[in-house]
């Protein structure tokens, strides 16, 4: 079980976020769900790079080669991903604010301008 | 020479950063000239690199050359298709910047260069995506491209539809990008590599003689979901009409002209480099998946395109229909198909950007892009009328436009009944554009009746993008579409251009086979046939409107485009499942 | 890794504190939820300190430092911007607050004892001080720290 | 219509879930030992005297990704500035002073410098210990907003010349790009870390251009977050619509 | 032993994510998201990624909740002034 649990948790988080996104009645809530979706990618990437009994590849307080280390590449990827997530959240929230002003609502069910 | 490749990204980004840094001190004209110069310099760089792209260049950013075949750096690819896309992106950005010359009424206070800076960042992002040879790097530039595109789409914050369309765009594309990242994570777990070529080799090595397994299928589905969302394939396409109909016209030119096509390019690149080996997805499954989705896309979007009255939305659906045709073309996995699609994309970019530019003229002159209310009002705009009609004929594939050459080559490559899809989809979408031309610019036919008002977006009562309604159309707004159409024409008639494109595409992929590209009699006849069909459809719609009103069976189809972001997300999940199901047989069989 | 008391303690701290905080933050009136959000910091920050000790990586203390700094800031954000929702049911969970502060103090003292004097210990003490002060102040803010805030 | 969405969601979600679970079962077990790229990255980091391998990957081996990342931040902040600009039918209201309990105010004012210093520390030690430009930049920028929490919006506005932050955001991006282009000018590759000496392992000046790129990112992130929050705060606190619009 | 702490952190993450989706009011969701951010930071620590954990703390514990709460406040304040204007108009 242990050897797939982290991956399953990542998949679960992604699908949960998608469910929330699809059924949301409030656009701010939807953006929050999108952030949840994204956190699944962090979990997956870091789980992929983990190694049993290893430690972080940061050698400020560790002699190189004294202990096995986990994969640094996925950590760098996740860092990039977190920045992307935060900025996308901010940008989408800015759009939601404008929707609230122009449409007077943040309920996607009431946004009925673009169709057909 | 290959050291210059990353500058395709760095130069526009540096231009954007400097514009923001000093933009509020510059007069507006200086900011615009800066943008023009930077964009032009990038275009020149892309063209120079393109001319030197045989044999294909490879650059390891940061000088991390592979040691014993292994590198820790990021690889950037400078082959014909990559640099060709970068050049196309840059030239079209240049055209869009020229079109928007002194265009928006008031740039945000204290941020005079903001629009130009965002356009430059968009250009840099698209160039970066085009030349990416590393899967994660492709994701990063994919996101940069998306983020700038969201901001540009919602640029007119006074417009309620614009901000809604931008948000839909943002949510659906971000979700697609996260799916793509999950796929990248799975591929990294299997192969421990990020460079596309190395991942492909890793998959083959891991599969041994066993063929692909569920993990390969899942990563294929997830990565392609991200790319197909960008390419707006059915059922991932819902965001596109909502976003393209509301974005500022210069942005539409880029979105429809190249960004969507970059999604198709991404599919081609990723399949060819990562999944084409024995450990990847078998060719038959890819063909089944892409041809099915592509045909569905072309058919759905052609029908939807026909029933639009909002002119920009109509053009957006025509983009979706043509993307479907591109997907079919690359889906058959033949060198001729790749060459044809490459030419088709180049020709389509010119024609579609020109059509959007003309729609922008209508918007700024009359404050409306509604076919019904504009009926006969634009008789005075003779030049624009001619351009719009020529664009429609080019879209239909009238020889010798570039679109026609590309379409003819692709049709020959796909062969069989799929040819009918090409003829029908291009005829219907071009017929709709011709119908608009006849009604709006010539005032032909009776004034159409409004119907189904709960099912459609009208396009009347829009805010113009310029300072007030234009009384006179500036020269830039007619010169730019004219030049774009001329370029699309030149693609078809330029001696040897087709062969040049074909050679550089085949050198980069297509298994080394080399196809030659030239006009053939069946190709010309098919092009003439679809043009004739388009003219007939357009004429019929204008003279006998009740023959071509929406039939009842089209209503559910139109109702699907509900403007509700939750629906679109549900469709995205559904699309991923369908994609998985279409590619499943090969995995089960292996 | 053999049985490691530090990691065991961290697991208990994380499991117990985290679950309780999560339960508190998803149920009940708004006021109680914010209190629970504040308690998350007090539960997770000691866990981070214990983990750093358990893994033998002093560098991980930076995480606890950042959480001790930013956790209360997050709570202050909620206390400030949820002003209206908190009206009426002003939470005053002083018992809980001081229990959490006591827990933090014990953990910091234990980790300090294991580290021994030096720069690392100074850092740990700073973390402890920030954590306890932040926790108490955030509780204070929740029980009426921003009474007069309207337009600002 | 709503029912259709739920059906799609159920079918699509189930299909995708099945696919993902099947993929998870095919993944190499959690905690496995095979990380070829990771092992190479650690080796490369040590040859370039960078103690924090993640910093080496971020600012040296895959610095081109970080360029994309900071451009995303830059573009998103520019996008937010554009999207949250004052529209034609809006005006600015003077924010009202807030009444904050004294202990809270005192805490905020004491923690503010501590947080700023911590932010700078996290940035400065990026190539040695966990942390780096991004993490430290966010902390430093958030620290500034303790003024809003501890006092009121007017106090924050006084110490926050927005134009300066916007300019420094853009200049930091330019610095990163120019440092990258220096490699091309020197005849090597874009973002090549071969121009400066690598220094002594585990000291602040080790790693060649890594500390410089790290500092540029730190400056960019701190300025960008300040600008971002300023735009949201303006919306939440100052900008009001004209009544009856 | 290190497996146990990873399992606990993973389960907490999954539970927080579920809770964040289930809270339909954005202000309450923001509270859960801030908890999710902190829990993720701990998960990253036990997965031996302190750099990522720091990043997640900086973003998840303070920045994202602040952005969401400011948006909520703006949307609510807008609703209030509009209601007031509507009342004025009715009077």
UniProtKB/TrEMBL annotation, chain A:
A Pfam family cross-referenced in the UniProt record is Oxidored_q2
Annotated membrane topology: Multi-pass membrane protein
What InterPro entries has UniProt attached to this entry? CPA3_antiporter_subunitC, NUOK/Mnh_C1-like
Is Nuclease set as a keyword in this record? no
Origin, by domain of life? Bacteria
Q: Where in the cell is it found?
A: Cell membrane
Instruction: Recite the UniProt keywords alphabetically.
Output: Cell membrane, Membrane, Transmembrane, Transmembrane helix
> What Gene Ontology cellular component terms go with this record?
plasma membrane
Question: Which spans are transmembrane here?
Answer: 73-97
Keyword Cell membrane present in the record's keywords: the answer is yes
Family classification = Belongs to the CPA3 antiporters (TC 2.A.63) subunit C family.
| The protein's name in its UniProt record | Dehydrogenase
User: Which species does this protein come from?
Assistant: Streptomyces filipinensis
TrEMBL record, chain B:
Q: Where in the cell is it found?
A: Cell membrane; Membrane
Q: Where are the transmembrane segments?
A: 33-51, 83-101, 167-189, 214-233, 245-268, 314-335, 341-363, 384-406, 418-438, 479-497, 517-542, 568-588
Give the record's GO CC terms: plasma membrane
- What are the entry keywords? Cell membrane, Membrane, Transmembrane, Transmembrane helix
Q: Which domain of life is it from?
A: Bacteria
Q: Which GO terms describe its molecular function?
A: NADH dehydrogenase (ubiquinone) activity
Write down what this protein is called.
NADH:quinone oxidoreductase/Mrp antiporter transmembrane domain-containing protein
TrEMBL record, chain C:
Membrane topology, as annotated: Multi-pass membrane protein
Q: In terms of domain of life, where is this protein from?
A: Bacteria
Where located?
Answer: Cell membrane
- Main site of residence? membrane
Q: Is the keyword Cytoplasm assigned to this protein?
A: no
Gene Ontology terms: cellular component: plasma membrane
Q: Where are the transmembrane segments?
A: 34-51, 63-83, 95-114, 121-142
Protein's recorded name: Multisubunit sodium/proton antiporter MrpF subunit
Task: Provide the organism lineage as a comma list.
Answer: Bacteria, Bacillati, Actinomycetota, Actinomycetes, Kitasatosporales
From TrEMBL, chain D:
**Do you know which Pfam families this protein is assigned to?**
MnhB
Q: What is its main location?
A: membrane
Q: Where is the Na+/H+ antiporter MnhB subunit-related protein domain?
A: 105-226
Its transmembrane ranges are: 70-87, 107-126, 132-149, 170-192, 212-233
Indicate whether Membrane appears among the record's keywords.
yes
Q: Which GO terms describe its cellular component?
A: plasma membrane
Subcellular localization? Cell membrane
Coiled-coil boundaries: none
Q: Does the keyword Transmembrane apply?
A: yes
- Assigned keywords, A-Z: Cell membrane, Membrane, Transmembrane, Transmembrane helix
Enumerate the InterPro entries for this protein.
CPA3_antiporter_subunitB (IPR050622), MnhB (IPR007182)
- How does the protein associate with the membrane? Multi-pass membrane protein
- PANTHER family per the record? NA(+)/H(+) ANTIPORTER SUBUNIT B (PTHR33932), NA(+)_H(+) ANTIPORTER SUBUNIT B (PTHR33932:SF4)
Q: Which family does it belong to?
A: Belongs to the CPA3 antiporters (TC 2.A.63) subunit B family.
Name of the protein described by the UniProt record = Na+/H+ antiporter MnhB subunit-related protein domain-containing protein
